[in-house]
Amino acid sequence: MENDKYNNHANGTLPELCRRYDGSRQRRRQIHRRPLHLQRSVYDPSIVSLGPYHHGRPELRDIDQVKHRFLDRLTSGDPAKKNSLYDRVLERIDEIRYCYADFECVGRYDDRALALMILLDASFIVSVVEVIAQDVDFSADWQFCIGGGNLLFVIRDIMLLENQIPLQVIKMIIKSQHGDKIGEELLQKFVIWLMSRKFSTFGRSCIPTNGEEEPLHILEACRELLLIEQNKTLPTTIFGIKLAQHDDHNFNQTFRSVTHLKEKGIHFMPSSSLSVKGIKFESGAISGRLHIPIRVLSPISFVCMSNMIAYEMSPGSETGYEILSYTTFMKSLIEGPADMKELQEKGILINKYQNNAQLLEEIKALDTFGLDNLDIFNEVRQQIEKHCRSRTKTWMADLKHTQFRSPWTIAALLGAMFLLCLAFMQTYFTIHPRK
User: Fold this and answer.
1) Which tens digit of pLDDT belongs to each residue from 259-283?
2) What is the pLDDT of residue 338?
3) Bridge partners (DSSP) listed for residue 247
4) pLDDT tens, 336-376?
5) What is the DSSP string of 344-409?
6) How far apart are CA 260 and CA 242, in angstroms?
7) Packed helices 356-365 and 337-345: angle between N→C axes, nearest 10 degrees
8) Helix (H, G, I), strand (E, B) or coil at 265
C-alpha cells in the first residue's frame, strides 16, 4: 500500500512537499500546550475549560452551558451590549487566533465560533475577578451555576497553561464594565491575590503598562509578579538552562539541606523581598543568615508552580527559567521533615495542607527535570560555599552540633569544669596556705 501511495504521485508533486514553513511565527509570543513529556494531571482542567485547547470536553460541558449566564450578568441581559462586545472580539479575531501555538486545534473553529468562545470565557473570568477583587455578591447565581464550594477549583483551572485566553480580551471586557482605571486596578488586585491570597500593590503595577510589553495571559502575569522586584532583562536563548549536575562555576557544592546548613551556623530568616529571586545570604563573624521569600503553600500554589515551569519550558518562551531555578533551589534545601519544620518555624513556608507529610510529598513531586539556570543563584551558592569552607566561621557551630547535641553532654562539661576549679583552688591553697 505504501508503494501505491507513492505511485499515485509518481507523475506529480506530493502536496506535503508544497507546504512552506512559516518562520515568522517562530518568535511570536503565544499560548502553548504543555510540553508533551510532562505528565498531565496538574496541567488538565478539573471543572472549566478556557480557550480552545480543552473546549468541548464532555466532563467540562456543564460549566460551558452556564457561561452565558455570566455574560448576561455583565451586560444586564441587554442584547445590544452583548452584540457590541462580540463585535469587538470579532474585530481582533485574527490577532486572537495567532495567540495560540496549536494552529490545528484553533483551526477547527471558524472566526465567529472562536469569537463567541473567547467572549464567553472572558466574561466568566471577569466575573471571577469581580468576586475576588471587588467582593461582588452574586452568590445566588454562583451557587446555582457552579456551586459555592467549587471556587477554588475554578481558580486552579484559571492558572493552567493550556487554559489561558489573551489578557487583552479580559482587559477589554472589564474596562468596558468599570472604566480604564478601575478595570486595570481590579485585574492587578486579582493577580496579586492569586499569588499571595491578599491584596497589596507592592509599590507598582504587576501588569506592565506604559510602553512595557504586557503579559500575554494571566499565568504570565502571575509569573511577572514573582519577578517584580528584579531586573526584567531576560536571556533569549535556551542556553540559559544548564544541567543541574554540571558545575561551571569553579566550586563544588558541598552544602545540601536546611539541617546541614544549620549545622554550619547558617540561620534562616524571611526575606523582605517578594521576588523568587530575592534569596540573599549574609555571612557574619561566626554565623550566616540565609534570607528566603515567604511563600504560602497550598494545592493551588503547586498547580500554579508546575504550570509556570511548563510555561518557561514551552517553545519560544523567552524567560530566564526563574521559577524552575527557584524550585530547584528550594528542593535542594528540603530533604526531610526536619528541614520543613525549620522553615515553617522561621515563618518562611506557610503550610495550608492538613499536615507536613502532605506538603513534603508535594514538594518532592514538583518536577524540574534536572534543569537549572545556575547563574540566578550563583552568587548565593558561592557565598554559602565560602562560609561552609571557613573553619573560622563554622567552628562554633561544629562544636555545638558535634559535642553538645545532648543536654547531658553540656551538664557533664559544666561538672568537669566545676571539679577542675575545685582542684585548682585546692592546689593553690596547698601551696599558699592562709596564715
Assistant:
1) 888 888 888 999 988 888 889 999 8
2) 92
3) none
4) 999 999 999 999 999 988 888 888 888 888 888 777 787 88
5) HHTTSEEE-SSSHHHHHHHHHH---TTEE-TTTTHHHHHHHHHHHH-HHHHHHHHHHHHH-SSHHH
6) 25
7) 110
8) coil
